[in-house]
Amino acid sequence: MKGTKYLIWLVVPILLLALGACTSAASGEAIPSIRQTTLMEPDQKTAEVSTEELQTILREKSATVFDARPSQEYAISHIPGALNVAAKPGVSMDLYISDPAEVGRVVMDNKAAPIVLYCNGPFCSKSKRLSEELLEAGFTNVRRYQLGIPTWRALVGLTQIEAEGVEYVWEQDQTAVWIDARVPVEFGADPIPNTRNLPLDEVSAAKKDGRLPMEDHNTRIIVFGTDGAQAQAVAEAIAQNAFHNVSYFAEPLETLRSTLTR
Questions:
Q1: DSSP of 189-238
Q2: Per-residue pLDDT reduced to its tens digit, 3-46
Q3: CB 21 within 8 A of CB 31
Q4: Measuring CA to CA, which residue among 51, 56, 78, 58 is closest to residue 67?
């Protein structure tokens, strides 16, 4: 059931995008690729960016990207390069909104600073609420990736996990698969219990020998290594093999080890 619900979150945004593409085809308009399209909601107060545009923004660092979800959700899995800020004081979880004042602090109160927001996809209103409050506060360059993290996972595949998320998943999710990206000799000399060794050159082999969960590609997979670059490379390779819930830990191995033992 858990896997089915997660799959729905992945599939629904893709179906919505496909429907929009069919409509464009019928009208004779140029059809954007699925990475180039947006949700195209009516009466939006702030413009949307596509997955492709967001990738460019993150690569070029041309805007500050904020994850508008609660801090624990962010810590467990977020778009690499995105920032998270504290909640607005006094709001309930069902009406959650990040604190616009904290956003302002991050961009040093530059009201013209380019800002991109995202949250949990087409059915989530967190980024909308935050965008509207930022507009009211005088910010003039606010956009949203309203397709959100479900579509990012489906189209890009890779997310990042923070130390707080590592601790939570280790304690709460017994179905998660933990991948140690170090070379075998390093792993063998100093393994972390209940983890699987999978260096970059063995990703294909791991699909056959049981190290990767081939019967459920929605299984949460956490990748760590000697450093963030090693972990990211292996996580990217796993995601490119149709695994949809892959996160990498960007900090050194000793940080992860101390997080799991505290």
A1: HSPPTT-EE--GGGHHHHHHHSSS-TT-TTS-EEEE-SSHHHHHHHHHHH
A2: 555 555 555 565 556 565 555 555 667 788 999 999 998 889 99
A3: yes
A4: 78
244-256 burial, b for 16+ CB within 10 Å, e for fewer?
A: bbbbbbbbebebb
Sequence spans of domains, the chain: 37-152, 157-261
Superfamily (CATH) of domain 157-261: Rhodanese-like domain (3.40.250.10)
Tokens found for residue 250: 């960007």
For the domain 37-152, what is the CATH code?
3.40.250.10
Domain pair 37-152 / 157-261, same fold: yes
Tens of pLDDT, residue by residue over 121-179, are 999 999 999 999 999 999 999 999 999 999 999 999 999 999 999 999 999 999 999 99
Contact 93/60 with Cβ under 8 angstroms? no
Residue 183: half-sphere exposure toward Cβ, Cα within 13 Å: 2
Residue 13 near residue 122, CB atoms below 8 Å: yes
Measured distance CA(147)–CA(170) in Å, rounded: 28
Q: CA-CA-CA-CA torsion for 11, 15, 17, 21, nearest 10 degrees?
A: 150
Rounded distance between C-alpha atoms, residue 130 and residue 53, angstroms: 20
- Tokens 């619900």, residue? 5
Please, where are the H alpha helices in the chain?
2-27, 51-60, 71-76, 100-106, 126-136, 148-155, 163-172, 184-189, 203-209, 228-239, 253-261
Integer angstrom CA distances of residue 40 from 44, 137, 176:
8, 25, 35
